[in-house]
User: Fold this.
Amino acid sequence: MKPHSWKGTALLLATLWNVPSHDSGYILIHNQSDEEQLEEWLAPAMNRAILGTFAQTEMGHGSNLSKLETIATYDAKTQEFVIHTPTMSAAKWWPGGLGKSVNHAAVMAQLHTNGENKGPHLFFVPLRDTTTHMPFPGVKVGDIGPKFGINANDNGFLVFDNYRIPRRNMFMKFSKVEPDGTYVAPPHAKLGFGAMVLVRSLMIRMIEYPEHVVLEIQKPFRSLQDQASQLGCAAVIAIRYSSVRRQGEINEGEGEVQILDYRTQQYRLLPQLARSFAFLFAAYEVKAMYFKVTAQIQKSANTELLPELHALSSGLKAVITWEVAQGIEQLRLSCGGHGYSRASAFPDIYTYAVGGCTYEGENIVMLLQVARFLMKIAHEVRTGTPKLAEIAEYIGRKDSGRARVRSWKTCSDEEIVHDFEAVARKLIFSSYDRLHSLRGQMNKKEAWNACSIDLCKAARMHVKTYLVKNFLARVRTCEDPASRVVMHTLAKLYAFDLISGAGGHFMKGGFLSEQQSDQIQADIYEMLKTLRPEAVALADSWAISDLELRSVLGRRDGNVYPAMLEWAKNSPLNKTEHYFFLYFQRPSNIRKISRANDERGSIAFVDCQLRMGMGIMNEI
Assistant:
């Protein structure tokens, strides 16, 4: 079978962590293929006929698409693309499932046609024979070896040696190459980013089975719940355990109290629970916006919201993955020594979650992409030519005095949003002014590098402003009055906790007074007290079963200690006795032990001989 002589095939594009996701595969094909390609690929894709992966990252390059080294050169004589890995650093590195599982990949490569480089484009590339699963000639593929976590996933490497695929294997919905090599550019430069927006929205929402569950049930990683649930799962475990664990007395003689009654423990747990809901709601909204933008493009070629959505998805990816990783660690610490045990599930949740800080775009690179978008908007506002869609509309408004935030019981959502928007706007224009000033002293790239820390801070505040706005707006749609009150308190806790953590930005220039700052801190403590009786119910609202959670500490029935002892008994080390202590015995004692038990005696004799042979045992 020739590498390109295949028909009726499809690409089930999985995300980088190799979730065989029906939704992501279907949508990527639907949004990157022309009508003819859809007719050929869509049905088999929905039936999961062929498993694939997304191969963009290279050993030497990741987020900097313009510098990717893999080349796809069009040969007009044969109407084929010749895909080649010209250097070692050009090897594709990290695609999920590539090592052993998949037989196709969506490969990002530099498109060369008629002697010109048209930049990175996406190609549908068969890698392995669908019958024998052996790599095709010209394809070298394998596993990259153990990682920090998620080792059940076979992340792989991919090297091409002048490998040929048909012309029609280039995804051609927006850009294409004609048979004679003529290049047809897309109507909008950002259209190709639509797939990445979707992947990031799914990534914000996705959680997988922890690695030990995969090994136990012998199944590949699957989508369990929305990705923000990684933090949600950790919060559920910590809150449930904190309602079981008793430690110390608050009032002398009244007995030990649940550690959840300590204000310090509430301060560790409840803001993280609030974050998990904020991230979940943001993911739902970004996904809905993605479909809205896609519909607009298909109906009227309206791409107005696309740059803002791309920037927002990049920023959410950076902010959320970082805070999820930090939040899980804080929740682990809140469980004391037992949180360090794998029985808690924290080690597996953390090692999976922390990978999100890197894959699908390194976080600092993502923040700087957001910053580039914000600097463009700031320039348009300053020059009187802003083109703002709904996400960044606030940047064009004028500052309106000091902070409006008041007591959490009386301040409105609009007042909270006003203060976040004002601080984000100031950071954006402060960064813009500094960047503009430095450009008079050095070249543009040097100025950008000199301002990059401030630019990242502005980007983070832009994203956090969106998270607060969206959380408050989502809560207002809650139909149950009692639930809405509780969730509104949780949303305000999230907002006030962010203000407290960014006090320097809010108090700069006297925007937030010291009195207001003190009130915010006092209100945080008051909200913790108010939410304490609702904590377990809020955790249970995630509706995560014990089978899914796989945590001894987070058991729904609260029987933590019997389950922990049973878990320990099941350790493989407890299946047999070990005789390491014999290495520290005198030979005369070993002989006594040998006579006491024939079976043990034989083991002791062997151990004794081994020790004497190694010259490490001396009779004293």
